[in-house]
Amino acid sequence: MKTIIEPFRIKSVEPIRFTTKEERIHIIQKAYYNPFLIHADDVLIDLLTDSGTSAMSSAQWAGIMMGDESYAGSKSFYHFEEAIQKITGMPYVIPTHQGRASEKILFTILGGKGKFFLSNTFFDTTRANIEFAGSTGIDLLNEEGKHPSFIAPFKGNIDLQALEKCIGEKGAENIMMCMITVTNNSGGGQPVSMDNIRKASEICRRNGILFYLDACRFAENCFFIKKREKGYEHKSTLEIAQEMFSYADGCTMSAKKDAFANIGGFLAMRDQKTIQECRNLLIITEGFPTYGGLAGRDLEAIAIGLEEVLHEDYLTYRIRSIEYMGNKLIEAGVPIIRPTGGHAVYLDAKDFLPHIPPYQYPGQSLCAALYIQGGIRGVEIGSVMFGKYEDNGHLISPPMELVRLAVPRRVYTQSHIDYVTEIIIDVYKKREQLKGMKITYEAPYLRHFTARFEMMA
């Protein structure tokens, strides 16, 4: 069939408030041109993130009613633990209130001054927690992944030669971990191949370096492996996931992504000594080890979501719906990261707005334009999110200037996506009218959440 229908029926609806263009101009000016500072009621189509914004299933809502709220030894925790152990094969699991809490605990234990952490590409909170611990995060994305228009099946891969070179330069004793992000969020939601994961794991084990996965979107990555990597076409997504995790010493996950939950996360690993240290810190910062900052009902929702996300009818719909949006934009000449990834369409702001240099934040300008034109909220992934400063104050820009339009799971229909593409195309036709921006306020970490901007004259 050419038409891929949603593998669900809509049982409850939430109204959307419509605004005029004039209202939106006032709203975004009041929010200092930062989409994070816009009230959600003023957003028509919210593509800021797919984190915690998904629609839960009837089974998950039923699980919420069954949640065991016992402080210690909740049966909901053991359901949660069993679901994670089945997928990852990792014996030790602790729940956290979201993914960044897992990162904070892990990097506090393993990080410190003079230590290095390597990745295909760290996302914002991961990098921030590494740096907050006094360590340095290094991205080693393969060359294919640095070119938005270049088409390749696994543009999220880590550069294996660069990995070995970095280990030789920094010294294996100074590198605490290599963490592969699946799918590679900052790199366009692009998948990582099983072969790349296996070889990266082998390099790390040969050098005595821990190998972890950032597993927020593990199911989407596994589905890409099934569809694109030889030898996996007849394996189930669960079997592919189990092999993928078998190469890792541990993983972090925000359950707000591929577990359909509105809150929650976990840290899982194979090492008993490290997990005990993590549990000790968990008790101080999150809660008792069998709830870890979550209610029992949330543990139930996550356990059920982890089973549902591996259904291949869902994953077929999910990947095709993103591809549908990307194809419509490509047909109109709009520059995006190709091929489309798993959870979002990424606009290539550098190519979209070539007249705006990186130090004037083209991605932020494009985000503002999409909101003003159609009430669409996206997020900049470029010089605002990942830019650094030289000692003289000059901006060091990342390789790509992107705008991510992350699609919440099971929330929007095809007509919503058609509307989004129409607005993007309309903005693209008027792109020469857009102006750059300057930052008037920024925080020392994760500045994109609270930064304030002004439009250039």
- Shape, please? globular
Helix content: 40-55%
Average pLDDT taken over every residue: 96
Query: Nearest-angstrom radius of gyration?
Result: 21 Å
**Count of discrete domains:** 2
Q: How far is the N terminus from the C terminus? A: 51 Å
CATH superfamily of the largest domain: Type I PLP-dependent aspartate aminotransferase-like (Major domain)
Multimerization state: single chain
Low-confidence stretches: none
CATH C-level category of the largest domain: Alpha Beta
Q: Give the strand content.
A: 5-15%
* CATH architecture name of the largest domain: 3-Layer(aba) Sandwich
Brief overview:
The chain folds into two domains: 21-50 and 311-455, Aspartate Aminotransferase, domain 1 (Alpha-Beta Complex), CATH 3.90.1150; 59-308, Aspartate Aminotransferase, domain 2 (3-Layer(aba) Sandwich). It contains 16 helices and 16 strands. It has helices at 21-30, 58-66, 75-88, 99-110, 124-132, 160-170, 194-206, 218-228, 237-246, 272-285, 296-308, 312-331, 349-352, 362-374, 383-386, 414-429; strands at 45-46, 92-96, 116-119, 136-139, 175-181, 210-214, 250-254, 265-269, 344-348, 376-377, 379-381, 388-389, 395-396, 402-406, 437-441, 452-455.
Q: Could you explain the architecture of this structure?
A:
With 457 residues, this protein is α/β, with parallel strands linked by helices. The protein has two domains: 21-50 and 311-455, Aspartate Aminotransferase, domain 1, CATH 3.90.1150; 59-308, Aspartate Aminotransferase, domain 2, CATH 3.40.640.10. The protein is 40% helix and 14% strand. It has helices spanning 21-30, 58-66, 75-88, 99-110, 124-132, 160-170, 194-206, 218-228, 237-246, 272-285, 296-308, 312-331, 349-352, 362-374, 383-386, 414-429, and strands spanning 45-46, 92-96, 116-119, 136-139, 175-181, 210-214, 250-254, 265-269, 344-348, 376-377, 379-381, 388-389, 395-396, 402-406, 437-441, 452-455. The strands form five sheets. It has a seven-stranded mixed sheet with strand order 2-8-7-6-5-3-4, with helices on both faces. β5, α7 and β6 form a beta-alpha-beta unit. α2 (58-66) runs antiparallel to α11 and α8 crosses α9.
